[in-house]
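Quick one:
INPUT:
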């Protein structure tokens, strides 16, 4: 079992592959982690060191992934934070080659674009996500803001969310996991992760805790990828991932930590 995960890497904290890679391994799945950045910490800290990695380096690393036969071995391919338009383009090229080479490969696109009403990626990345990566994806995991931005549909209620997911699904090839959702009928004090597959919504609600550590979306994506690689059905994979993240957040709140308390990864029982 192998997941190829292409996203950011930080020295301090748990975002991008610095969240996903450990979680995937803790679930018993091997991971080939390709960095798109090497940063000291999440950009929302007062200072930031490191940089977005050069497009030539990303292309070279991805060529190495292909040369080692990892595309043939992988069950799931994940893309997250891309870093630059050049990186986005060479990663899209890699996704296309990988999908052609391994017909069984599940491609999970986490369209890391923005949050809280703000786009925080470089100009040009959105176009690559919208026109090249999403059409190739089996599954995408936008937050509620990204879902609205990519679809052009307001998601105030379940009907709107279904319509937005239908836009992203295209011809029905792409399932959508919408994260951090608050809809008109969401219970007070809760937040939802919503799977839209085959036109049907599966809703997973948890308490909304008064903390917002970085990297929860990256962790969710990594956990879903790991469970899919192990053969879990889509709905089960999402439910298990949501349960684990909530356990991590409870631990993080209890510790009073600004960063997720990820280690050791909580074990969540499978529900019938």
């Amino acid at each position: 079992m192998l997941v190829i995960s292409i996203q950011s890497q930080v020295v301090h904290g748990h975002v991008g592959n610095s969240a996903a890679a450990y979680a995937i391994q803790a679930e018993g799945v091997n991971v080939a982690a390709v960095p798109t950045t090497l940063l000291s910490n999440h950009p929302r800290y007062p200072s930031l060191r490191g940089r977005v990695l050069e497009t030539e380096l990303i292309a070279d690393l991805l060529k190495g992934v292909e040369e080692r036969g990892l595309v043939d071995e992988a069950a799931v391919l994940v893309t997250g934070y891309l870093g630059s338009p050049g990186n986005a383009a060479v990663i899209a090229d890699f996704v296309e080659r990988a999908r052609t080479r391994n017909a069984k490969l599940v491609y999970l696109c986490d369209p890391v674009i923005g949050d809280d009403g703000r786009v925080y990626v470089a100009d040009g990345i959105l176009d690559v996500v919208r026109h090249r990566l999403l059409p190739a994806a089996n599954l995408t995991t936008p937050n509620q803001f990204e879902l609205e931005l990519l679809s052009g549909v307001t998601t105030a209620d379940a009907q709107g969310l279904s319509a937005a997911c239908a836009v992203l699904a295209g011809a029905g090839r792409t399932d959508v996991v919408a994260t951090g959702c608050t809809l008109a009928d969401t219970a007070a004090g809760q937040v939802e992760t919503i799977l839209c597959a085959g036109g049907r919504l599966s809703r997973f609600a948890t308490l909304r805790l008064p903390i917002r550590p970085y990297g929860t979306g990256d962790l969710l994506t990594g956990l879903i990828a790991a469970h899919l690689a192990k053969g879990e059905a889509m709905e089960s994979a999402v439910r298990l991932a949501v349960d684990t993240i909530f356990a991590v957040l409870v631990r993080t709140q209890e510790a009073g930590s600004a960063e997720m308390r990820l280690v050791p990864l909580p074990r969540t029982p499978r529900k019938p």
